[in-house]
Amino acid sequence: MSSPGKGPAPDPRRWWGLVVIALAQLMVVLDATIVNIALPSAQRALGMSDGNRQWVITAYTLAFGGLLLLGGRVADLVGRKRTFIIGLVGFAAASALGGAAGGPGMLFGARALQGVFAAVLAPSALSLLTTTFADPKERGKAFGIYGAMAGGGSAIGLLAGGLLTEYLDWRWCLYVNVPIALVALLGAAAVLRDHRPGDTGARLDVPGVLLGCGGLVALVYGVSEAQSRGWTHAMVLGLFAGAVVLLAGFAWWQTRAPSPLLPPHVVKDRDRAGCFLTMAFATIGMFGVFLFLTYYMQLVLGYSPVRTGLAFLPMTAAIITGSTQISARLLHHVPPRLLIVPGMLLAALGLVLLTGLSVEGEYLTHVLPGMLLAGLGMGLTFMPVFATATAGVAPRDAGVTSATVNTSQQVGGSIGTALLNTLATTSTTAYVAAHLRDPAERARITAEGVVHGYTVAIWWAVGIMVLGGLVAGLMVTARAPRHLVPPAGEAAAENADARSTYGN
Q1: Residue-wise DSSP of 472-484
Q2: Mean pLDDT computed over every residue of the chain
Q3: For a tag site, which of 2, 294, 396, 439 has the least CB within 10 Å?
């Protein structure tokens, strides 16, 4: 940071750079859901077993969630533009490989490769945004667009997956990334400018990589297996125990490593830690609800995949509105928590409306109002969370800080999908067992039980959202960003502190 008027001139191509960054972010986020729609078709085409089909999703989330911290630190060390371009090229190549898969193993491997390169691309994109936009007003607009992509990408993926699967072929759900990545690659080469500082003497923390990435892989894998095996299965408990041991060892080592993978001062900051937790709670609550609404509209309302995707568009529009038209305009005037807390509570209210789903429900009365409120709340939340979590961080730590935000989002989404799905399934089983008296009514009771399971899980999501709002209210105490630019002396002190952290 530097005092007003003494910093470098803004990059005249920064808004075109934002387009490139937002496009790459959209590609990474929508890829988490676009393949879900294509999965039944891919399973039939490649002869996948029911037990193995989950690896199409799990392979991606394991590599993505487990390697984000490494990807963020690599971006800090070798340059964000360079890792951004490497991530784009690798993601496109892995997507093409997956689209051409001749068997399950090839598809699983391609999805894992997608996750690896997404773990390089996502933190590079956010850290480029962080270092490109310093002016509070411009930063608000930029993060508003980025937050809209992060929040709405999943819903866009559902629509794109439905259209591509229904009118082309499931393979195009992977091939579509190639032209998107090509456009982003050409744009990145033309308009992005790297802000990597000179040689700091920092080196990659190999023990930190093994402990941190190993712990995250064990955690995400344990959560994904809990969905099919149950939370008390020996393998699941073993993975969770391993995750605790590895992550505890990682935390201990980061306080002693000469060049830590995740510098302790990044997570010790109260506002930043509050944003990481809030992001995790928000995605735990929302990702499972995306899944339930998809099932509800297709299985209960009888919608096609394309119609289901179209039904999510109002929610996407609400997320974009909340992020770009409300949060982006207000962030430099009000403290972040005055946007985050109302956003979480508004999303919780939207979920409360969705607990009214029924077998005889209709989209306009039972689904749309809750979707609009939840989307607006997420738009209000995501933008200030991203902006606050990455504000004031030393340039050398921008990549790993961005990676930590993405890790919160990815791990939260994995936990939310598995946890809420387990709650829904358990509640459905209990409902059917308690109400089925006449075998002739099995179909009706089963349908009622399925919807009952959804509503029970959504009530849990409401509680998680409220808890996230409480965390944000208590921990995120930063003032409006226009008050956060320190005088030159404080900036120099911060830079000196950062240098001492790395032994320079």
Answers
A1: HHHH-----GGG-
A2: 83
A3: 439
pLDDT at 169 over 50: yes
pLDDT in tens, 68-105: 888 888 888 888 888 999 999 999 999 999 999 989 99
Residue 105 to residue 95: CA distance in whole angstroms = 14
Q: Closest Cα partner for 83 from 381, 351, 402, 468?
A: 402
Q: Give 94-147 pLDDT, tens digit per residue.
A: 999 999 998 999 999 999 999 999 999 988 888 888 777 777 777 778 878 877
C-alpha 244/C-alpha 216 separation (Å) is 9
pLDDT for 1 equals 40
Indicate the angle between helix axes 136-167 and 14-46, nearest 10 degrees.
30
- Specify the DSSP class assigned to residue 397: G
Query: Are 286 and 415 spatial neighbours (Cβ–Cβ below 8 Å)?
Result: no
Closest CA to 282 of 143, 150, 451, 452: 150
pLDDT of residue 140: 75
Per-residue CA distances from 132 to 1, 126, 191 (Å): 12, 10, 11
Q: What is the pTM of this model?
A: 0.83
Each residue of 26-63: pLDDT tens digit? 888 887 778 877 777 888 888 887 667 778 887 888 88
By CB atoms closer than 10 A (0-12, 13-18, 19+), residue 494 is: middle
Write the DSSP string, 44-106. HHHT--TTTTTHHHHHHHHHHHHHHHHHHHHHHHH-HHHHHHHHHHHHHHHHHHHHT-SSHHH
60: left (phi over 0), alpha (psi -120 to 50) or beta: alpha
* Both tokens assigned to 373: 């409120």
Q: Domain residue spans in the chain? A: 14-193+259-501, 206-255
Q: How many C-beta neighbours within 10 Å does residue 437 have?
A: 8
**CATH 1.20.1250.20: does it fit domain 14-193+259-501?**
yes
